[in-house]
Design brief:
The chain has 165 residues and is mostly beta strands. Helices cover 5% and strands 45% of the residues. A hairpin with a 6-residue loop joins β8 and β9.
Length: 165
C-alpha cells in the first residue's frame, strides 16, 4: 500500500463557494505543487483547483466542492498526499516525515536521542529530540548545531554547546 503523508488540516470554511481554510503542516507554499489531495474519511483523490494564502493559512479550493454546505462537514479533517507524489528534493533538503525517527549523535558518536518532531512554524525550524535519558530537548536547525544529516542512514550528527540539552 502506498505511504500517505499528512500535509495539513482543514480548519474552517472560507466564503460561500466551497473554499477551505487549511492549517499547513509544512511550508504553506508547498500546496502550490499539489495537484490532488485526499481528505481523511472521504474516498478518493480531489483535484486542487486553486491555492492562495491568508496569513499563515492556505485558502484551498478543490474541484467539485462548490458550496459552503459541501465543505462544512470537513472541518478538522486532515489532508494527505501519497509520498510517491512528492517532488524530488535537492541533496541538502529533506521531508519532515523522513527526519522523524532519525537517531541523533554528538560529534564523538555518543547517542543523544531520537528526533520526535520537527517544528517549522517558529522563527527558526527546531528539532524536538527525545533524549537517551527519556527527557526532551529542542535544538534549532542551524549550521552551528547540525554537523550532518543522513536521511538514508536515519542519522543526524549535532555539535551541541553546554546547556542546550
Amino acid at each position: 500500500m502506498k505511504e500517505k503523508i499528512v500535509v495539513g488540516k482543514i480548519a474552517n470554511t472560507h466564503g460561500l463557494k466551497g473554499e477551505m481554510k487549511v492549517y499547513p503542516y509544512s511550508d504553506k507554499e508547498n500546496f502550490e505543487g499539489y495537484t490532488s489531495l485526499m481528505i481523511e474519511g472521504v474516498e478518493g483523490k480531489h483535484k486542487v483547483s486553486q491555492v492562495r494564502y491568508s496569513k499563515n493559512m492556505v485558502i484551498l479550493k478543490l474541484k467539485g466542492l462548490n458550496r459552503i454546505e459541501e465543505v462544512e462537514g470537513l472541518r478538522n479533517r486532515e489532508l494527505s498526499i501519497y509520498k510517491d507524489d512528492l517532488e524530488p528534493l535537492a541533496d541538502d533538503e529533506f521531508y519532515v516525515v523522513d527526519i522523524i525517527g532519525c537517531h541523533v549523535f554528538d560529534e564523538a558518536g555518543k547517542v543523544l536521542g531520537v528526533i520526535k518532531d520537527y517544528l517549522t512554524h517558529t522563527s527558526q525550524a527546531v528539532f524536538v529530540i527525545e533524549g537517551a535519558d527519556g527527557g526532551e530537548f529542542m535544538v534549532p536547525h542551524v549550521d552551528a548545531f547540525v554537523a550532518q544529516i543522513d536521511i538514508a542512514a536515519k542519522r543526524v550528527v549535532m555539535k551541541l554547546i553546554e546547556g542546550l540539552m
